[in-house]
Amino acid sequence: MSTAGSDAPALAELAPGDPRLMRTPAPAAIVIFGATGDLTQRKLLPALYSLAAQLLLPPETIIIGAARTVLSDDDFRDRMRAGVEEHGRLPIDRDVWAGFARRLQYVPLPFDDAAAYGRLRAAIEEADEHRGTRGNRLYYLATAPEFFPVIAEQLGRAGLAAEPDDGARFARLVIEKPFGSDLDSARRLNARLSAVFRERQVYRIDHYLGKETVQNLMALRFGNAIFEPIWNRRYVDHVQITVAEDLGIGSRGGYYDRSGALRDIVQNHMMQVLSLVAMEPPARFESRDVRDEKVKVLRAVPAFDAAAAVTDAVRGQYGAGWIAGERVPGYGEERGVEPGSATETFVAMRLTIENWRWSGTPFYLRTGKRLPRRATEVAIQFKPAPHLPFAAGAVEEVQPNVLTLRIQPDEGASLRFVAKVPGPRIDLRVVSMDFAYGSAFLRASPEAYERLLLDALLGDSTLFARWDEVERAWEVVDEVIRCWEDGAAPPPPVYEAGSWGPPAADDLLERDGRRWRRL
Questions:
Q1: Which of 87, 130, 238, 269 is catalytic?
Q2: Among this protein's residues, is 87 annotated catalytic?
């Protein structure tokens, strides 16, 4: 694929019209703040290496790690190689790595030290002059959230945030979640960022939107004439969105105990998926059009008030139990968790979307840790057939049609429908028609961070959250946060690890005459 440590010759050999040329961004200096952290080693550097190996990263592009730890360039390269070897999607190729490693540099940088940003600026300007990065900068904030505004403001003071209106070069800021911890803190953070960067420069990353199955939602709906006509309240009975994890909080106790499932998963990941499921067809598959339609969905979701926060939102906290035959501790026993913590590890919610397409159709969301299995899916359950002209005994096992979109771990989709059992009499059973990415395309799906990093370099913000999306998602759930933290609701009930959450989650659907899917 490449020769003796550089991928430049291979890039030159690509034929005109090769799709890789169409998706290759301009050269840039990529600066990763928090470069010694877990996210960089597990996700970011493996993704960037994979892009380079696929000839999607220009050979002039450099990657500068910035963190408080003092390291040499060679020490940083050794750490990053170990991360790519352990977590990368593609095995390391000696020649590709040799060229990739030469792109890696390191600048020790206390995040609040103005003098250190002068050293960072010198490294970037040297890359502009000697490596051909052309004044383009992508800043990735892989740090604790409290450093987001600090780094942005220091970049502004160092003259590293501005970009010209003519598009001759770019300076973009990629921010990991969480974007605030409630509505007020999100607004304060956005105000500080907006004082330095324009909205068009800010890329709020949600790795769920980089997953192939999430993107396939739009292809499924808007690329197939058979689905869109029935994608509405006339035919859909309800929608369930589930993000289930069998793991506990692991080493994230300190962070998770301040966050909880509502902030960690519902406000961002699940609201993003909800908006994609329910959005109207965009005029064009372009950033502004797609994000406009997503915002319209969120604006049509009534925000929880104090009453709904009690009746339509359920929380729970896992206790000790059994997962895959292994005894696991309860949340209160996990390292980093405050004694007597009321932080929720499970959330179930009932939402509605008050517009012409979805009025009266409930959307049920649930997420939790220490559930029986890991699974993320969207299930669209259609209304039952209005009349079954068969004998009663023939239809005992007939159930409504369900279209299931599996986001992880087994990416794909399935459609549940009714068929006749072979034999001399009419006997109906439910069967499934399945589509799996791996077997259908015989290729592995790229990691979400590969797609999102490439899009950020290209300036394609379609799969990133705009500020009005983030703000509206906080507005929807903010009263629930206040209710739970102010003690207006009872403390979270404990559910046994290995179960599907507290009984109140089942009650939430049963009072509507429905039940959760058992995955």
A1: 269
A2: no
